[in-house]
Amino acid sequence: MIYPVLLCGGAGTRLWPLSRKSYPKQFSRLTGDESLFQASARRLSGEGFHPPVVVTGSDFRFIVTEQLMEVGIDPGTILIEPEGRNTAPAILAAALHLHARDPGALMLVAPSDHVVSDIEAFRQAVQAGVRAAEDGDLVTFGITPDRPETGYGYLEVDGEMREGPMKLRRFVEKPDIDTAGKMLEQGNFLWNAGIFLFSTEAVLAAYKACLPGMVEQVGRAVEAARPDLGFLRLDPEAWMGAEDVSIDYGVMEQADNITVVPYADGWSDLGGWDAVWRELGREGGQDVVLSEHATAIDCDTTLLRSESDGLEIVGIGLKNIIAVAMPDAVLVADMSRAQDVKMAVAALKEKQAAQATVFPRDHRPWGWFESLAIGGRFQVKRIVVHPGAALSLQSHFHRAEHWIVVEGTALVTIGEEKKLVTENQSVYIPVGTVHRMENPGKVPMVLIEVQTGSYLGEDDILRYEDVYSRG
Questions:
Q1: Which of 213, 194, 210 is nearest to 86 (CA)?
Q2: What is the number of alpha carbons within 13 Å of residue 210 lying toward its C-beta?
Q3: Pairing assessment for the beta strands 106-111 and 2-8 based on DSSP bridges
Q4: Gap between the Cα atoms of 142 and 167, Å rounded
Q5: How many whole angstroms separate alpha carbon 55 and alpha carbon 6?
Q6: How many helices (H) and strands (E) does the chain have?
Q7: How far is CA 183 from the centre of its chain?
């Protein structure tokens, strides 16, 4: 039995505006009905796998559990990083946690934002690496390249390419296009997928040899971790002392017991909108890729995507163009500049635009909300509350609120009074009044909230009770 370890903390800035710091790409439905995270978890579940260990940030913990439950997967252990410190500390924390429970167990580490088109073939590749991992090797999985690619690191195998496990000769950093072409012609290079299989014993030995200081710091963070509503929060003080470094650079490039298993049956890290165009175009056999609310007229090699039901995007005579529309931001870029989208995020951060990091739909443990209209002294929101969920008991210093239920039934607390508010009914909450909203029903409850006051920021909130243990 293998323990899947899903890394779930990246920001995915090259897929802006859909992927942002507050709601990164792994939780989005980029290529199908499931999110990338859900597809990754399902790929590593069932026969031969334990429930997953997920390493993520505090802001995403309820999204992780919600999305796992949607696809019927036991959440297993969810380790909460106090701050993202790259892959080496995250994987080490999972290894220490698993080794304490099941010494020497096999763990399969995978990013949660990749696309694998043939699940059975991928599982066969994993099984091909089991023997080497049991024998103490650090197994990494390399993707058979089908084009010269400058966005990936490479693995050079020792000898000619063949099926099954092979010894690694060296890691190669992301090359320029000419070097990538030469490596493709040479035939013994694979893309580095960042997927690893090893025993807890073997990987901990590698960490102790290569990053002994990190073993001490992360070990303290795991030992002092505290349970919190089913999550396991790593100790912040110890965690912040761990070096910010990738496992490739900190461990794998220094180890001498690495085995490579090739995989050639469809993979993408969706590292840019050109990769999304390539993946969806390959599946549909088409050169112009459209979302439901997109129309193309005489276009070629183009991706048109709208993420809003009320926003239609139309392209005329476009070639090699990416156009992605969100309710609050629009990206238009040449296909050849897809890797430069992160520059747009940096530019928006420089001008302090909220769109750089904040997703228009704000996900909370009880559901989500989005702003429909904002003025100087008012804001209108749509709020969706999951069945059985409840917002905190709270009050505001600077704003009053009007709630109009448009779907379902709300159980509303205002001061000492509790009452049911059904569809087309409304209530008013004066400034400073203690209040709460709950959904006692079995279907999502939707309401429109109108805020009025001198300050409408999300930090104007005083919580008295909260089932989700937020501050």
A1: 194
A2: 23
A3: parallel
A4: 12
A5: 6
A6: 12, 30
A7: 31
- For residue 431, give the nearest of 409, 456, 406 by alpha carbon: 456
- The one-digit pLDDT tens for each residue of the chain (471 residues) are 999 999 998 777 899 999 998 899 999 999 888 999 999 999 999 999 999 999 999 989 999 999 999 999 988 899 999 999 999 999 999 999 999 999 999 999 999 999 998 999 999 999 999 999 999 999 999 999 989 988 889 999 988 888 889 999 999 988 999 999 998 999 899 999 999 999 999 999 999 999 999 999 999 999 999 998 889 999 999 999 999 999 999 999 999 999 999 998 889 889 899 999 999 997 777 899 999 999 999 999 999 999 988 899 999 999 999 999 999 999 999 999 999 999 999 999 999 999 999 999 999 999 999 999 999 999 999 999 999 999 999 999 999 999 999 999 999 999 999 999 999 999 999 999 999 999 999 999 999 999 999 999 989 999 999 888 775
CATH topology classification for 365-465: Jelly Rolls (2.60.120)
* Ranges for all domains in the chain classified under CATH 3.90.550.10: 2-268
User: Which segments of the chain belong to CATH 2.60.120.10?
Assistant: 365-465
Q: Nearest-CA neighbor of 166 among 263, 264, 258?
A: 258
Spatial distance between the Cα atoms of 291 and 303, rounded to a whole number of angstroms: 9
Give the pairing of strands 189-199 and 106-111.
antiparallel
Strand partners, 449: 381, 403
Q: Taking the mean position of all CA atoms in its chain, how far away is CA 310?
A: 26
Gap between the Cα atoms of 2 and 52, Å rounded: 9
The secondary structure element, H or E, covering residue 36 is helix 36-43
In terms of phi and psi (left: phi > 0; alpha: psi -120 to 50; beta: otherwise), the region of 82 is alpha
Q: Which amino acid is at 355?
A: Q
What number does CATH give the domain 2-268? 3.90.550.10
Strand bridging mode 77-81 / 231-233:
parallel
Query: Longest C-alpha distance within the chain, in Å?
Result: 76
Would you say 318 and 345 are in contact if contact means Cβ atoms under 8 Å apart?
Answer: no
| Nearest C-alpha neighbor of 427 from the set 452, 440, 446, 410 | 410
